[in-house]
Structures are given as C-alpha cells and as structure tokens.
Amino acid sequence: MNLDAAKAALAHLELDDTPASVRAKSRDFFWYSPVLKARLDHVVADFVVSPRNEAEVIEVLRTCHAHDVPVTLRGAGTGNYGQAMPLAGGCVMHMKNMAGVREIHPGRVICEPGIVIRDLDAITRAQSGQELRMTPSTAATASIGGFVAGGSGGVGSVRWGALRDLGNLIRLRVVSMEAEPRIHDFTGEELHRVSHAYGTNGVITEIELPLAPAYDWISTFVAFPDFPTAAEFGARLADEDGILVKLITVCEAPTASRYFQRFRGHVGEGDHVVLVMVAPHAMPAFGTFLTRWPTGRMIYRSDAPDWPRDPGVAYEYGWNHTTLRAIKVDPAITYLQVRYHGPDFLSTIERIRALFGPELIQHLEAMRENGRTIYAGLTLVNFTTEERLDEIIRIHEDLGAMIFNPHRYTLEEGGRQSTDARQLAFKREADPKGLLNPGKMIAWDVPDWDYSTIYSYAGLRPAP
Amino acid sequence: MNLDAAKAALAHLELDDTPASVRAKSRDFFWYSPVLKARLDHVVADFVVSPRNEAEVIEVLRTCHAHDVPVTLRGAGTGNYGQAMPLAGGCVMHMKNMAGVREIHPGRVICEPGIVIRDLDAITRAQSGQELRMTPSTAATASIGGFVAGGSGGVGSVRWGALRDLGNLIRLRVVSMEAEPRIHDFTGEELHRVSHAYGTNGVITEIELPLAPAYDWISTFVAFPDFPTAAEFGARLADEDGILVKLITVCEAPTASRYFQRFRGHVGEGDHVVLVMVAPHAMPAFGTFLTRWPTGRMIYRSDAPDWPRDPGVAYEYGWNHTTLRAIKVDPAITYLQVRYHGPDFLSTIERIRALFGPELIQHLEAMRENGRTIYAGLTLVNFTTEERLDEIIRIHEDLGAMIFNPHRYTLEEGGRQSTDARQLAFKREADPKGLLNPGKMIAWDVPDWDYSTIYSYAGLRPAP
Ligand SMILES: Cc1cc2nc3c(=O)[nH]c(=O)nc-3n(C[C@H](O)[C@H](O)[C@H](O)COP(=O)(O)OP(=O)(O)OC[C@H]3O[C@@H](n4cnc5c(N)ncnc54)[C@H](O)[C@@H]3O)c2cc1C
Ligand SMILES: Cc1cc2nc3c(=O)[nH]c(=O)nc-3n(C[C@H](O)[C@H](O)[C@H](O)COP(=O)(O)OP(=O)(O)OC[C@H]3O[C@@H](n4cnc5c(N)ncnc54)[C@H](O)[C@@H]3O)c2cc1C
C-alpha cells in the first residue's frame, strides 16, 4: 500500500488526516459488544476522504486501487458490528457530502447515499406527503446508504418486512473498485449483490427506494402486569391488517422502569411495556383493540400527553435504542439478535424465559416475514464471559430460535454462517484486489472456514 | 300498513310510484342465484322515496313508522342476495341524492352514504392523492352505503383484510326507525351493530372511512399451465409484504378463454389466469417475483399494452365480476362463496377440485384474515338442482372449507348461520316495530330457527 502517493493524488479533495478526527471516523457502535470491543478498539484508518459526487468517488477508487490502499465506506458510523471500521487501515471514504435528493414520485424516491435518513424523510414529506417505508431507530443520525449497506429493517418492518424483502429496494447504483471503476445499475435479484454487503464489493452512489404515506404517527405506551400477555398483545396487534401501525416493541420488565429515564414514576419494576406507533386515523381502532385486553393500561399517548416530561418518539425506545438505553444505565449489559418464527414462536420465547431467568431481559420487535407476523428479539444480556455468551446462543438455537450474532464483524457470522454466493461473485468482479472493507467477508479470505470459533482477520492491523 | 296516508304525507319529497321504475328499484342482482330467482322475482315495493338529506330521512322514517309502512334501503341495488329487495312491499328509500363528501383528511374521509364508490375515489384522489382501502368490484356503480351495509370486502382486501376488520370502518352515523327517530354515532365495537346488517336496524346517513394512498394501479395478467401452481403463485405473492398489490384473482381454466371476451386469442382453453393489480413502483419487484415462477407467462400489462382491444381494469374481472361474466356467456352457471383458511388451505382446494371435476370451476381471491393470507373462493358452479347445490355446500364444509351461502336472502343464512346478538339487540332498540327491511333477520322473526331448510319469510308478499 502506497499511502503517501494516494494521499498526494487525492489532496485536492476534502481529505482529513488529523489523528483525532480520523480515529473518530474509524469507529462505529462496535462497543455494544464486549467481544468486539476487546478486538477492535484500536482500529484506525490513515486518512478520511469525503467525495462530493460520483466523479470524485470514482477518482478515489481509481487512485486507491492503483496504490493498493484499502477503502472502507462510512455513512454515519452507527452500525453495531464494526461494519464501518477499517480493519487494515487505509482510507475511510465518508459519504456525508453526497446527500442530495434527486427525484420524488408517487411511491418512490431517488437520492444520494449520504443523506441522513430523517432529513430524507423530512424532504419527501414536505414535497409529497410521503416517507420511507422503514427506517432504523437511528434515523436521526444514520445515512440511507449505511442503512442499505449495513442495516436490516426497523421502524416500519411490522408492516413491510425486512429491508431486503422484494419490493423494499428498487434500484442501487454502484461503483466498482478496479483500475477503471465501472458503474452498475442494479434492480431485481441483482440488488442482493450489494445490499447488506457492508460496502465490501462496491460503493453505492444512488438509491431508489419505495415510499409510503407519511402520517403524524402517534406514540403510545401500554403496560401489562405479565409478559406473555404483553407479547401476545403485540403479535395479535401486528396481525390486525386494518390497524395501521409502524412499530410494536415489547419490553420485558424491568426495562422500562430501570432503563427508560422518562418513564420513571409512570411504570413500576413489574411493568412490561409495549410501545406502539399508530397512524392518527387508526387510533380509534387501536383503542377498540386495546379494550379487548383487560390487563393492558395505556399509560401514554402523544396525542394527549400527560407526562410532565416529554418522553420523545416511541421508536427511540425501540430496536437497538432499547439496548443503547440499557447500556447507558448498566454498562455490563449487551445483547443478542434473535428471530422467533414458526407456528409456535410465542411458546419458544416462554421456554427461553423460563430457562434463563434474569440473565436475559426480553425485548421483541414485531415484524413481517413471508407474510406472517414474527418477532425479532434484541434480547438484553447480563454479560459475564464470551464462553457463556456462546453458550446462550447455542441454547437459543437448540430451542428453535435463530441467532444473528452481533458479536462478530463478518458478514457471514452476523448472518446465517454461510457464504452469500451473489455477494462473493460480485466482489470477484468489482473488487479484484480485495481492497473494499477488507476482513468483513470470510468467503473472500478463507473459503473453507468452519465457523467453530470466532473469525479473526489475518490482515487486522495490530494495535500500535 | 296505511300506504296512502304515508304517500300523502311524503308527497312533497322526491317520490316515485310509477310501476315500472318502482319495480326496477325493487330488484338487485338476486338473479345470480337460481334459488333466489325462483322465490323473489315478483317482489316489488309500493313506492320509492329519495331523501335529499338526513332531515328528510328522519321524516320518511317517522312517517312510515306512524303508518306501519316497511322501509327497505337502497344504494345502487348491486347486492347479490336480494338484500335490497322489499319482501313485504312498502317503501324503498333510495339514497342516491345523499352523495356529498364532507371532509377529507390524511388517512380518512367523511361522506354521505349514497355516493357512487368510484366518484368518491375520484374526489379523494383529486383532492388528496388518496383512495379507499378497499372497494367492491362494482365500484363503478355501487354506493358506499350499500357496501358498508351489504358488502364484505373486495379489491384491496389482499392488503387490508375484510371490511368489518378493526380499522377498516371508523364511524357510522345511523338513524333509527321510531316514533321519533334518533341519531347515533357509532365507533369501535358498536360499528358491528349496523355494518353488514342490510339496513335492518337503522339508516346510515354518514360514513367515516380510512383512506390509503392512491396509485395508478397497473393491471397485469399471468397465465399458468396448471392450476395448483397458479393458486400457489397468488398465495405466495400475497405473502410478499414488500410488493404492493391491490388484487390477486386466480381463475381456473377455462374461465378466461371462455368467459372473458377480450382475452380471446390471448389465452387457450387450458390457461389458468392470475389477475394482479400492482402499484407502479412495485412493478420491478413484481417482475422479479415472477421470474421465480418459470411456468408463469405475463400475457398483459396495462402499462405496456399490446392487445388490440383494451381489456379494461383487472378488478372488473375479479370478485363477483368473474361470476357476472360467466353467467352472461352461460346462464346455467351460478356460484358459491367459500373461505379456504388454515395451515393447509391450498390442499383443501385441491381436494375439492379432485372431487368435483368440471362441475365446479375455481375462482380464488387472495385476502388477509387475522394477519394471514387466505383465499376467498367465488366458485363457479354448473347448476343442476337446488338439492345438488346443497350437497355441494355440505361437501365443502366436510372438507374444512367455510361457506357463505349466496343463495339465501337472510343475514344469518348468508353468514355463519347464527344470530348476531349485537345486530338483534340494536334492532330491538332502533326498529321496535320491525319495519326496516323485513324478512332479512331470522332472529327477529323466528328466534329458534334451526337452519335445516331454507328460511322462507312469512311476510313475503305473494306474487299477484
Ligand atoms: C442505537 C442504535 C439503533 C439501531 N437501530 C437499528 C435498526 O432499527 N435497524 C437497523 O437495521 N439497524 C439499526 N442500527 C444499526 C445502524 O444504525 C443502521 O443500520 C444504520 O442505518 C447505519 O447507517 P450509517 O450511516 O450509520 O452506516 P455506517 O455504520 O456508516 O455503515 C454501515 C455499513 O454500510 C457501509 N456503507 C456505508 N455507506 C455506504 C455506501 N454508500 N456504499 C456502500 N457501503 C456503504 C459501511 O461500510 C458499513 O459496512 C442501530 C444502531 C444503533 C447504534
Ligand atoms: C358483479 C358484482 C360484483 C360484486 N363484487 C363485490 C365485491 O367485490 N365485494 C363485495 O363486498 N360485494 C360485491 N358485490 C355486491 C355489491 O355490489 C356490493 O356489496 C355493493 O357495495 C353494494 O352497494 P349498493 O349501493 O349496490 O348496495 P345495495 O345493493 O343497494 O344495498 C346493499 C344492502 O345495504 C342496504 N343499504 C344500502 N344503503 C344503506 C344505508 N344508507 N343505510 C343502511 N343500509 C343500507 C340495503 O338495504 C341492502 O341490504 C358485487 C355484486 C355484483 C353484482
């Protein structure tokens, strides 16, 4: 890698090599995981470049390719698995300057990748009364490109399924890292080459996404004295196709009382809380549904607020914000990502609760999968050791719950522990030197990896 | 009943007693059923009154109550079970003059009952880019009040479920038939008192309904060489939460070749056809989905039409329009209304096909029920005798398919063969003399009816 030559060639762009800011832009929310924290805390790039347009993206890629400099993409660095961290150093390409909205049509938007999701929603809302179908709970800071390349779903998935489900992405424009970078426009099955590929095989420079109508979603919180009822309430509510909701989050006690500061005084230690975002015109039906659950108490609704301190929007208590709030209060907490599906998913959850007791605190997110309501679990874990964490994962799998391990920095280990042939094939074509976000795709480095232990990228630059 | 006194008192309203037009306005699409045709063909009211506003509705009800004149509501008379037919004669109250749209908001509309559904959709679309969540395939002629009082779902139910599911109706304003009629505003559980009650216990004078975004839906037709694949294609497509569709209709061969005139030359006798309405921004994903079904051929898409004669919108081949087109070609055909649900609903359909052969031609409509995709069947039946029809129904029930019998004119027999306690209780309150649409609610006439034979209303005015 010829760093100096690359930096010199790129000096006319927005380039930053101040150590403190390079270090800041080399990190994401990997520290959610004690496992990743122990391994990646020292990771740092050599410089950060922030292209203003696709031509500059191409220039960066061509130059870094010529000088064998690794390039790791960065949106806002809110990913949780070190996805955006430059394991082998080199260049971090920051997308913040590419934040334009190109076209808004009924049902879709075309934009650049670096725009902050909340800003994008504000623009489509103002100009067309529409918003994204789904956003991560980090919408206020995360970029849309980072969501497409590193996210999986979130607020809105209760209605629309996961981000990679057919129809939730329309088109991605991608630049390859070759001697002469090429531009691809991907639709259909080809979208899977680069969506959720952590930027390992191309740079997304334009995104076309479907839009849904924007409503003034109402945040409501419902407390239940027992957890199985709360979980059932959430699942049955998600099954009500006529009640338009955008979020159904179930937090086992004592999450709300202990970790949600603004909930203090409104919930007890024993309260299990369901957070729901409801369309205004669905509030009457939601109210009717609620009366069928005699033990459920609506403790807050943002359209008739009666808490002295505004708790803020519901979604910033959901998805990985639940974890964030818990870690802030108790740094010993970490989490797991679980999928409970199949005909008996509520019983699976109960069996797991019975087995673990307070070592785990359940946090469920209702979503759609193949036309069914399922729960994604972002279980809070009282962390002790890595060995115990692995054991907890094994027990979940034995009980029929699927785990997406958030304590791994590779695509495969965070996914289904198998090679995505489409991503790998496209990497061969689009990144022949293997310079894009190195160390994140095991299949590229070690094709016959057996997953029996945590993968450790050989090119990981050692701590100085 | 003192007809002359009632007519005299109402003479200053829009009142019609010309025999030909009274007879026309006393009939609906009951003739779809040979069973009802044999029983109701002679039914005729004494006069028709068309109130211009709620005050006139109240005046009609007060007057007819005073003179013991039955009142049967009429929207557009497109119902299929004689719902709008005045079995005991008397007054038909026609709602065509009450067709105003009162308010349009994000996600909802408030209107009068007499407006034609297509006109309502055109107004909400023009003013707000929104349309009704669901409409009957008769949207071009049917009234919204008739849909709420007599319909069950339709185009859009693949996404939103049935009309009576929570959230699909917001509010109904209802006038009772008492000495001094009262006005009720129903929301929540109370909606069930009057929705799908055939106007037997109140007159709906104002309706608040949810709206969804209006898109320029694309009509597509896909042909399959075998039926089970076509049925599976439709069900799996309905499970794709990210592919926004409004209609998925599966027509077994030879429906399309034999009964859909404009399809001639484009399909063969053996083609099973799936009709799909797709949002424009969902067309790429729909195309991707389709490529996963190698035996499916897209034979038409309205955004790139290549048929010499425009086949028109897909929904006018779906729901009960399929039946209409079949009857027009072959008057010996009638139909059944079936629900296929449960984990194995596709096999149930196959078992029924195997058993009946060409006596039945399958027609399936994908819809949501409790968060699941199911099929509503509007099976075409080669009619022979009433006894055989009853036997066909019994066999369906034995095989686990639920029947809503369209060859009956009462609420109970067309539904689950049991009293709706909420409707009955409200009728006691709102129509103490039993003058509203008499003969349609068995529970009112014969509380201990056992359903072993077809109900025959004792007050049915005999043929002259
Ligand atoms: C509190 C909290 C809550 C969260 N909630 C959710 C949630 O609800 N749902 C969810 O899916 N995730 C969630 N996340 C994870 C993360 O916030 C989201 O996925 C977010 O969308 C990432 O966006 P970003 O701009 O921060 O991406 P980054 O973290 O900067 O990048 C993510 C990945 O995308 C790559 N990348 C970025 N831009 C490009 C590009 N233009 N081309 C190619 N590759 C690119 C990066 O290299 C990296 O691998 C959460 C994280 C936190 C800390
Ligand atoms: C070809 C065809 C296709 C069809 N497709 C569908 C379909 O997809 N889905 C579906 O649900 N139905 C369908 N139907 C049935 C029917 O067309 C619809 O239910 C339609 O909405 C009825 O509206 P209408 O104005 O014609 O009602 P009408 O037939 O006039 O009345 C229906 C019932 O409502 C009562 N009523 C009318 N107005 C009021 C009021 N203001 N207050 C109280 N009661 C009132 C009447 O007394 C009657 O009992 C179809 C029928 C045909 C012939």
TrEMBL record, chains A, B:
Keywords: FAD, Flavoprotein. One of its GO terms (molecular function) is FAD binding. Gene3D superfamilies: 3.30.465.10. The keyword NADP does not apply. This is FAD-binding oxidoreductase. Coiled coil: none annotated. It holds the Pfam family FAD_binding_4. Residues 40-214 form the FAD-binding PCMH-type domain. PROSITE patterns: FAD_PCMH (PS51387). GO terms for biological process: lactate catabolic process. It comes from Paenirhodobacter populi. It comes from the Bacteria.
